[in-house]
Amino acid sequence: MAARQLISTRFAFLVAGAGLMAFAGCSSTAATSVPVTHPTMIEVSPDDFLGEVPCSSSGSGLKRYVATLIDTNQTFGGIGGEGGQGSETGPASAGGDDAGKAVAAAGAPDWFQLPSSLPTPCLSAVGFGFVVATRNYHVKIDGYDSDDLAPRASGARQMVSPAPTEARPVTPLIAPRWTAHCDRAIAVDSTIVRADHCTPFSAAAGVATGALRVQLGRLLGNLECGGKPGEVEQLNVSIDLGSGDKRVQLSQSVACSPTAEALFSNLPARQHVSVYITAQSASADAGQPPLAGAICDGNTLPDATVDTACSSLSVLGTLRVDLQAALSQLSLSCTATDVTDVEVQVAGADKPQSFRPPACLQPFDHGFSAGTQVVVVTASKDETELGTWSCHGDVAPGTLVTATCELNPAE
Which DSSP helix (H) or strand (E) runs through 249? Predict the structure, then answer.
């Protein structure tokens, strides 16, 4: 699965920056320096609490989360004033002012809960600006697999779903599917402190399967869906996971469309999956190679749908020649003491490509159309030819195949 950069939500910082620019624009003295004040904030990022739960735009996975900051200092009333009302788990909330004072005097923590964030996309971080330097904070995180939710009230941690509308102003509460918490974030003056020491999301106990989604439409590139020659009518998807007796192979055929996708459910969790996709033309004869191909891979997670990371569909495949392995057949290595040049001749090319040491340490890759393809490798020392190899392989669109190199008899 490809990783995307998280976007930090720092509204207070942007507002402060806008105010500073406005101040600078109104100043009549060019030499006047404007001090820059950084915000005092606690930030929480999904990187630190996602755990085994993937961030997902569709299907099963985290879509929105709600973060709640809690002042955990052992002082009566916390930031929210006297009385200890509204604390998350602090004892002061149970018995009013007198109970709160008694508990504070005994040295037990008084936890004060600040307003919660809005439901936040799983690619964004959340920053809390109403914090006091040197004070200790915890962050509670509630994760949801739905985008259609809203706070029960302004600043509330509880969510309702679906989001209220004029036609339906009251909707039921929804319980979070996952929970996490980050401990002991200490606010620092004029600094954005990222909460860490997070206990991540985890799958429900006993869940041993997951799902894999292959989004096919976005892999088409310059190819078009249709029934004409050269157009894609059908996409075939095959997956391979596990090994030995536990190896699993499955396949699906999907009609070509810009939104086509293949979904494989009830797969063993925590398994690496290899995927091969072929694009078939309507005019293709039986046994004819596919029009194009692509490879993907992914890792299944329990109780989640994971998107694969794929290359685009290509009409070419790659033949790889391991030059070092070929040289080793003559007990040679890619060094100037053994060879001065290694040439690779591709059929139809005007001249061979030269790989002088140390360039011959790297394999030679070349794109070919489907079928059996052959290249000729020649090693030389100064003006003396040391040997030649015929390197061949069966190429399929969108795949990489390592050639088999056979030493040609000396003339």
Answer: strand 248-255
The CATH code of domain 209-310 reads: 2.60.40
Using CA atoms, how far residue 390 sits from 118, 403, 407, in Å, is 64, 9, 7
Most confident of 207-221, 227-241, 261-275, 365-379: 365-379
Domain topology for 317-407 = Immunoglobulin-like (2.60.40)
**Residue 54 has what pLDDT?**
85
Burial (CB < 10 A; 0-12, 13-18, 19+), residue 395, is buried
Q: Under a CB-based contact definition with an 8 Å cutoff, are residues 369 and 292 in contact?
A: no
Looking at residue 268, its amino acid is: P
Using one digit for the tens of pLDDT, what is the confidence trace for 355-372? 999 999 999 999 999 999
Q: Which of 10, 194, 38, 192 shows the shortest CA–CA distance to 117?
A: 10
- Give CA–CA dist 73/92, Å, rounded: 13
In the chain, where are the structural domains located? Answer: 7-22+35-72+111-199, 209-310, 317-407
> Quick one: tokens of 400?
């990489």
Q: What is the pTM of this model?
A: 0.63
Tokens at 308, concatenated: 């694969």
Give me the sign of the Cα torsion angle 76, 77, 81, 83: negative
Quote the longest CA-to-CA distance of the chain: 103
d(C-alpha 275, C-alpha 273), whole Å = 6
C-alpha to C-alpha distance for 327 and 335, rounded to whole angstroms:
11
> Considering only CA atoms, which of 221, 310, 305 is closest in space to residue 274?
310
Q: What is the b/e burial string over 286-300, where b = at least 16 CB atoms within 10 angstroms of the residue's CB?
A: eeebbbbbbbbebbb
- Phi and psi at residue 353, to the nearest 5°: -95, 140
